[in-house]
Write a structure and sequence with these properties.
By secondary structure, this protein is of the alpha/beta class. The protein has helices at 54-58, 62-65, 79-88, 106-113, 125-133, 172-182, 199-210, 233-243, 261-274, and strands at residues 9-16, 31-37, 43-45, 96-100, 117-122, 142-144, 157-163, 183-194, 229-230, 245-253, 279-286. The chain has a seven-stranded mixed beta sheet, with helices on both faces. Strand 4 (96-100), helix 4 (106-113) and strand 5 (117-122) form a beta-alpha-beta unit.
Length: 287
């Protein structure tokens, strides 16, 4: 994200190819080293495991990945993001929007209802099929493709969203760069990613360290949900100079803590106050 070389990387620990639990030393598996860029705060695996086939990552059955109620589109789905978008700029009805990593197409439906001429790309054939068959997405609007293979005209879209997908891409900076080419000048990109400053991971890492373990809770590059990266705000601030955009808004979402409820009432307000929630959402404007 910032262009730093290996000299800027700090080893944080190792990550198993499965859920680690409280005591990962009792589990058998393969590990990869997890590092943090001292310059921009990006967390990732080094070396980065690469699947033999893209569908090894994304060929999960939708029914296994999501519960049945996720196939129901709520009235508030993507509502907050659309309201934020309208507060940042104005778009004419029929402006073109692109959902990268469209999944079941729920964001595409929400954007279309909001007046956008909406398109999407989705790398998983299974999710693509579910979007067409179960969510009734127009197949002419959704491409089954990775971002690396996808093609759209330059300066085509007014709005592009990466909804919890950039952490799955092998080169996030190149993915942003490609999306910027598709975006019109002054167009906006919304990106939601796991935060590298999430308090829960820091607590778990301290718990492992107290046990004398060199494991960390960050990312999950070799098992679902296959998170390859965690990002800080500085990751995008440094990347802005490389890819020609300004950060016009950002916020942190606490989301789930995965801690006992009795702890949540204490830790959730602290996470909100300290901007250490699970998810970071950034809004970028193309220069």
């Amino acid at each position: 994200m910032c262009g730093s070389d290996i000299a800027a990387f700090k080893i944080l620990g190792k990550r198993l190819n499965q859920s680690q639990g409280k005591n990962p030393r009792n589990k058998m598996g393969i590990t990869t080293t997890v590092v943090r860029c001292n310059n921009c705060g990006l967390i990732f695996a080094n070396p980065l495991p690469v699947p033999e086939n893209l569908q090894n990552h994304y060929g999960i059955e939708p029914d296994d990945y999501w519960k049945e109620d996720y196939f129901v589109l709520g009235e508030d789905y993507f509502k907050q993001e659309i309201e934020t978008l309208r507060s940042l700029t104005s778009f004419a009805k029929g402006s073109k929007a692109l959902d990268i990593g469209a999944g079941l197409g729920k964001c595409m439906i929400a954007l279309t209802k909001a007046g956008f001429d909406t398109y999407g790309i989705e790398p998983s054939k299974n999710f693509y099929n579910a979007a067409i068959e179960r969510m009734k997405i127009d197949p002419d609007r959704l491409k089954v493709s990775s971002i690396e293979a996808a093609e759209f005209p330059d300066n085509y879209f007014e709005f592009i969203t990466f909804g919890a997908v950039l952490e799955h891409f092998y080169n996030p900076s190149e993915s942003i760069n490609k999306a910027m080419r598709w975006l019109k000048k002054d167009g906006i990109i919304q990106i939601e990613v796991p935060s590298s400053d999430w308090m829960i991971n820091k607590i778990l890492n301290a718990f492992y360290k107290i046990q004398g373990l060199d494991y960390v809770a960050n990312i999950s590059p070799m098992h679902e949900p296959f998170h390859l990266y965690e990002f800080s705000l500085k990751s995008f601030q440094d990347n802005a100079a490389l890819n020609g955009y300004d950060i016009i808004h950002h916020e942190y979402y606490v989301a789930k803590t995965y801690m006992p409820r009795i702890i949540d009432w204490i830790i959730v307000p602290i996470m909100r106050m300290m901007s250490t929630g699970m998810q970071l959402c950034v809004w970028l404007r193309k220069k």
